[in-house]
Every structure is written in structure tokens, then in C-alpha cells.
Design goal:
Layout (H helix, E strand, L loop, with lengths): L23 E6 L9 E4 L1 H4 L35 E5 L12 E3 L2 E5 L4 E6 L5 E6 L24 E3 L4 E8 L3 E8 L5 E6 L10 E2 L5 E3 L2 E8 L10 E6 L5 E6 L15 E2 L5 E4 L15 E4 L5 E6 L3 H6 L10 E3 L3 E4 L5 E6 L5 E2 L4 E4 L9 E3 L2 E6 L2 E7 L5 E6 L9 E3 L2 E6 L4 E6 L5 E6 L10 E3 L2 E6 L2 E6 L2
Parallel strand pairs: 20-24
Antiparallel strand pairs: 1-16, 2-7, 3-36, 4-5, 5-6, 6-7, 8-9, 9-10, 10-11, 12-14, 13-14, 14-15, 15-16, 17-18, 18-19, 19-20, 21-22, 22-23, 23-25, 26-27, 27-28, 28-29, 30-31, 31-32, 32-33, 34-35, 35-36
């Protein structure tokens, strides 16, 4: 079985696996260690730059803009051809995380365990904080990132002025680190490996989630599907103190929560996770499922497709995309099989309990965006707009041209998505799917997702950040 992290930087999309699910919770407590490993450097010229900057009133604080993972910006570029406004200098490692935007700065995390703040106006480095030494591929039993540092997208607490990121540091542990968004100074760091887990086979690929006064950290396995890994969620209070809570998907092995979007949060605080395949071909163990968790990580209910056994044995992860929360108490889920499901948010329905389902595309990976009842699905054969009808059935609104689509974002009536194969940024008319804009970015990582803020589009192109504007 091949693992589903699919985080290799490559012009091709690797159809790997995900993992499955589990339902055990544990708590531990520890003191807050000192930030002894961190090194912060600032650029005096960048800190005092007078270059014009985009509208700083708009922010992109978390993966896909908000805890519901809508991918909707409040404003955005027009449908004109994007022009390259700036290209950053080379950063110290590859960037798999979605760029975040806060207070006129673009916040970027690298696989060299560094966080950068770049000026949104001209891309110059305002500060860089190096959080530790990343883990080389040679130290791991499998995998395809070398070295591995910060892979999952961080999250920003605007009220506290903190950037939260999980760094994988030698000799092979995961630490949640809170960094001051203004200065880059480390405020706290805590180990966030679940009790009893082996951090050398657990990959932190999914985005972090800030909700209920806690930071939630999802885990899956490494590319290659090696070792006794499980799907896990770990939660820590956002001040870095108190007990570490964890939830394990109750599989014999696997069932990873690895989609780049991480956990999705419903108003009221419940969390939704999608899992990949487990090893089970008999008793149901929450592989290839959507699981609803309480804020304190108690399992509440779940959904699995009626063909979950075939998905498990065929390495066809339902959890290759995170859950999409829609208005009206609905959830949309799609995965590597390319079949979309409509679920009730308050009662996911168990095995075969979907309200509606329909084929969408060949296979979907990454994360969706949505506007109203229309979901934009990134597929290996192009971007697809899917509409939920009043009777909870699904209808295809439009299909874009065939390309390996990265997770989309929506702003100003335009849906933006990267062609992961050619390194091209496309803009689609939200209503019709007509291509209205395109620009070359060069090579990007799987599953690269742009972000939009202040009239600009920000793209991570391996070790550089590109900013595009259309006006």
C-alpha cells in the first residue's frame, strides 16, 4: 500500500494513499519549555520600506481563509490578466504550506523549519525565525520530503498577534511553536506528539486549526505508508499551557488525517475530519470516513461510503480532500474515487447514510472552495463546479479544461487554481468556468494553493513566493 501524503514536488501528481480513523482520547500535561532553539533575524531595510503595499485591512489567517475552509476572500483581484508584482528572494527551504497574510505581511513556513514575514508590498524579508533543525529523509523509514520541517499550513491568531506552526525537529519530534507576528520572537514551544505514537512515522501534513481556544493538529503517515501510524488529532490551549489532548482513529493501523486542509470547524465548535484507508477488509474501523469530533475531541458520529471495504483495499482514500461545510447544515465530501457525497452536519449518517451522491471527476485531492451551494472541486482532470440542489442531489455546473488542479480559492467573482503539472495560475469565471486569466508560476509543490488578500494573489513556487496583481 502506498501512502497518501502526496507531498512530493514534481510535475506529476502521485496517486498515493491516505490512512484511516480512530476514536481514543488521552491527556498529558507538561510545562512550557523555553524557546532555546529559535533564531530570529530581521531585515532593517525591509522593516523600514516605504514601498506601496496592498490593502492591509484584509487578512488570510488560516488555510482556505477561515475555519470553515471556504476558500472565499472578502475582496480580490479582477478578471484581468495577472501581472507579477514581485518575486521574493530564495527562502531557505521548500514551501508546502499555503501563504498567510496579516497586517501587511505574507507569512510563510519552510521545510527548513523557518517562518518568514515578507512585506506584502514588495516581498522583502521583514523577519525570519529559524525554529530548529529539520529531519532528513535518511532518518525516516519512508517519505518523500527531504528534509522535513514545517509542512502543514500554520494559523494566525490576529487578536494575540501569534503565528502557530508545527515544526518537525531533530531528533524527530513535533513541536507546536507560537511566534510573535510582529517581531518573529518565539513566545512558547510545546511538544505535540500524541502519547504512545511514534513521531518518526507520523506526518503533520494537514493545516492547523484555531478554534475553541485551542490549536488542533492533525496527523497522518509518510509517503510509502510505513510503520504503525494512525490518524491522530492533538489539541493544545492557544497559550501553550495545560493538558495535551489527543484523539486516535480506532484502526489497527493507518486511517490518517492527511488532507492539506486539516480539520474543518462548524459554528458551535464541532470539528470534522476525513480519513484515508485503513488495513481492515472486515470489521469497520473508521477508515475512509468523515468523523465529527467535539471541541474536546470526543467522537460524536461518522459517515462512510457503502463501498468502504473496496476503498480500503484499493487505496482509494475518501480523505484525500477535507470536508466542506455548507449553509443549511450540510457537509460535502469527495475523495480519490471522485464521488461526491452530501451529508447532514449534525448526523453524518453512518455507513451509507448520505443524503445524495454523484460522480464528480476522476479523482480529487487537496481542498475545495465554495460559494453558496456551489463547491469548486480540484481534480486530476480539471477544476469542477458542483452545485447542491434543493433535494440534496448534486449537479455539475461546469468543468474547466483538463489539468492537474490544485486547491482553488475564490475572490471577486473569479476562481483561482494552480495547474500543478505545468506551474500555471488560472482564473475562471465563477459562474461559467470560462478561463479569464492565466500566468506562469514555474514549479510548485503538491498540493500548492494560492491565497488572496488586498487585491493580490500569493503563490508558493517551491522556494520563492510570487505576488500577482490584476490592477
Amino acid at each position: 500500500m502506498v501512502h497518501a501524503c502526496r507531498t512530493l514536488i514534481s510535475p506529476r501528481r502521485f496517486v498515493a494513499v491516505a490512512i484511516a480513523g480512530g476514536l481514543a482520547a488521552a491527556c498529558t500535561s507538561s510545562a512550557v519549555p523555553s524557546p532555546s532553539q529559535a533564531t530570529t533575524t530581521a531585515s532593517p531595510s525591509a522593516a523600514t520600506t516605504t514601498s506601496p503595499s496592498p490593502d492591509s485591512s484584509e487578512a488570510w489567517l488560516t488555510y482556505q481563509h477561515d475555519a470553515g475552509r471556504s476558500g472565499m476572500g472578502t475582496a480580490g483581484p479582477s478578471a484581468n490578466t495577472p501581472r507579477l508584482a514581485w518575486r521574493s528572494s530564495a527562502l531557505d527551504g521548500a514551501v508546502y504550506a499555503q501563504p498567510l497574510v496579516f497586517d501587511g505581511r505574507v507569512i510563510v513556513a519552510t521545510e527548513n523549519d523557518s517562518i518568514y514575514a515578507l512585506s506584502a508590498g514588495d516581498g522583502k524579508v521583514v523577519w525570519r525565525t529559524h525554529l530548529g533543525t529539520p529531519v532528513p529523509r535518511s532518518s525516516l523509514p519512508c517519505g518523500n520530503i527531504d528534509p522535513t520541517g514545517i509542512t502543514g499550513t500554520p494559523v494566525i491568531d490576529a487578536s494575540a498577534g501569534l503565528v502557530f506552526a508545527v515544526a518537525f525537529v531533530q531528533p524527530g519530534i513535533h513541536e507546536l511553536i507560537g511566534v510573535d507576528a510582529t517581531s518573529g520572537r518565539v513566545r512558547f514551544r510545546r511538544r505535540v506528539d500524541a502519547p504512545g505514537s511514534d513521531p518518526l512515522v507520523q506526518q503533520q501534513r494537514g493545516a492547523l486549526t484555531l478554534a475553541n481556544g485551542h490549536v488542533y493538529v492533525p496527523y497522518g503517515g509518510l509517503f510509502g505508508d510505513c510503520g504503525p501510524y494512525h490518524g491522530l488529532v492533538v489539541a493544545l490551549a492557544s497559550d501553550g499551557r495545560g493538558p495535551l489532548r489527543s484523539y486516535q482513529v480506532p484502526t489497527g493501523r493507518a486511517g490518517g488525517i492527511w488532507a492539506p486542509s486539516g480539520l474543518t470547524v462548524r459554528p458551535g465548535g464541532d470539528l470534522y475530519a476525513a480519513t484515508g484507508n485503513s488495513d481492515s477488509s472486515g470489521a469497520f474501523d473508521f477508515g475512509d470516513s468523515v468523523i465529527r469530533l467535539s471541541p474536546d475531541l470526543r467522537p460524536l458520529d461518522s459517515f462512510a461510503p457503502p463501498n468502504w471495504v473496496a476503498l480500503n483495499t484499493g487505496d482509494v482514500d475518501l480523505g484525500s480532500v477535507g470536508p466542506t461545510l455548507l449553509a443549511g447544515g450540510l457537509v460535502f465530501q469527495v475523495g480519490k474515487e471522485g464521488v461526491g457525497y452530501v451529508l447532514r452536519a449534525r448526523d453524518l449518517g453512518g455507513i451509507g447514510g448520505q443524503l445524495g451522491s454523484a460522480p464528480v471527476c476522476g479523482a480529487a485531492f487537496g481542498a475545495t472552495a465554495h460559494h453558496g451551494t456551489t463547491i469548486f472541486v480540484p481534480c486530476v482532470d480539471g477544476l469542477v463546479a458542483v452545485r447542491v440542489r434543493a433535494d440534496r442531489s448534486l449537479a455539475i455546473g461546469w468543468r474547466g479544461p483538463a489539468f492537474d488542479s490544485g486547491p482553488p480559492v475564490v475572490a471577486g467573482g473569479v476562481v483561482w487554481s494552480l495547474d500543478l503539472g505545468s506551474g500555471t495560475l488560472y482564473g475562471f469565471d465563477e459562474a461559467t468556468g470560462r478561463v479569464v486569466a492565466r500566468a506562469s508560476t514555474g514549479p510548485v509543490a503538491h498540493f500548492a494553493a494560492p491565497s488572496v488578500a488586498g487585491g493580490s494573489i500569493y503563490v508558493a513556487a517551491t522556494t520563492r513566493i510570487l505576488a500577482f496583481r490584476t490592477s
